[in-house]
Amino acid sequence: MGLFDFFKKKFSSEEIPIEDGDKTVVKSEDTDDSAPGWEAIDAEFDRLYPDQPNPLHYGTVVKYMFGGPDPLDGISVYDAGDFWHFVSYGLSELYTKESTDSEYSGYGIELTFKLKKSTNDEEEIKNGCGLLQYVARYIFKTGKVVLPKEYIYTKQMVGIDAQQKSKLTGFLTASDNLAKPLDTPHGKVEFVTLIGATDAELRSVYESETSKLEVRKLLQELENQITDYNRQSLV
Fold first, then answer.
1. How far is CA 39 from CA 28, 46, 60, 94, 157, in A?
2. Which domain, by its residues, includes 213?
């Protein structure tokens, strides 16, 4: 896990969130210090958690473009009651439009993670940030975008929790069922949530001739999108 610097999230007075059906549209004035992509993410999570203007936020000490190990510029963590709701900043174009694809912002996604609360929240939150950085690093290095209804299977046998004792060793992915897709000044962004999965579950997908159908089956069998390190395997 990379090093993170804890700080309070800053908000721009120039963001203008507009709800449009099943997506959030954000328009922003073009100023030298504007970050319309960042503001768009803020606006959607402001809608979800209006009572949390300053959630936990972990920012990278040395930015990836300057040789730092962590590709995400930041990760915010919101208190969602029974679980923590993480959201990444950095897979979409946060500050300026750099790609030639006018339809999508950056990779067209940001990652989310819903972690069930425990007695070890502080350590698990930091570990959760490390997991998001790990997946983002894979995307940056390979150019392969992680989309909904896919799986991440490294064949590791240790848990993805901080103590590495959980039966959950990898992830299934899905469209976040809380955060709406964004239509930002830089293009579209979808929130892809990571859901912890056991080795047996992931192996069943990996060995299946119809892996996409197997992923959908597992997603349907899960009661929700919350990662519970203590849950038993469905397989």
1. 8, 10, 18, 8, 38
2. 4-221
